[in-house]
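> call design_seq(struct)
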């Protein structure tokens, strides 16, 4: 990839509650979604209409502009969030035709420092509120923020679940633990998915 065409940032988080206790592990599932919502919001402030795809991508016009990866450290009390943003790539420099860059989306000269500062500022606001609420996504407003920006909701989806299972259906909502709730095609009880590769079915 040509130098200067993308932004890569890693953030080390050691989440603790206001009382100083470690954030419960089940609350960590919201962190990639928090990062996606923060990036989408910061890009919108730059004039780019960005949205979140559950669980860890940011899209512009249905094309991926950013991917987010979370890694739990062996200590179990820290997470590294890695975020990559396509800044200036031309179409032929992108890995697939389902990808895009900020330049292709209309941001004439995406400045990496501007993108980074906006992202970290928005991230800090959501993250601080989440910790203040002791990892309660509802009380902190995080669930509402993610839901507002999540284009996966109300879409027909195909979810490849770790282990090899495939689920197709309609994405209905994100539950209190950050899982995607899918109503299966053909009926049956909704299924809460904690991790998986999601494809929006057209």
């Amino acid at each position: 990839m040509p130098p200067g065409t993308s932004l890569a940032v890693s953030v080390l988080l050691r989440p603790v509650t206001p009382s100083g206790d470690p954030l419960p592990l089940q609350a960590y599932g919201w962190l990639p979604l928090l990062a996606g919502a923060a990036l989408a919001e910061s890009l919108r402030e730059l004039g780019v209409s960005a949205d979140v795809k559950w669980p860890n991508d940011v899209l512009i016009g249905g094309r991926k502009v950013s991917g987010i990866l979370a890694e739990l450290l062996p200590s179990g009390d820290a997470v590294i969030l890695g975020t990559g943003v396509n800044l200036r790539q031309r179409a032929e420099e992108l890995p697939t035709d389902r990808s895009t860059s900020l330049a292709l989306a209309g941001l004439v000269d995406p400045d990496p420092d501007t993108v980074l500062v906006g992202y970290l500022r928005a991230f800090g606001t959501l993250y601080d509120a989440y910790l203040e609420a002791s990892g309660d996504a509802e009380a902190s407003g995080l669930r509402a923020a993610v839901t507002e920006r999540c284009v996966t909701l109300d879409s027909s989806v195909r979810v490849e679940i770790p282990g090899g299972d495939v689920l197709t259906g309609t994405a209905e909502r994100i539950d209190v633990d950050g899982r995607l709730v899918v109503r299966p095609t053909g009926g049956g009880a909704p299924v809460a998915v904690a991790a998986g590769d999601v494809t929006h079915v057209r």
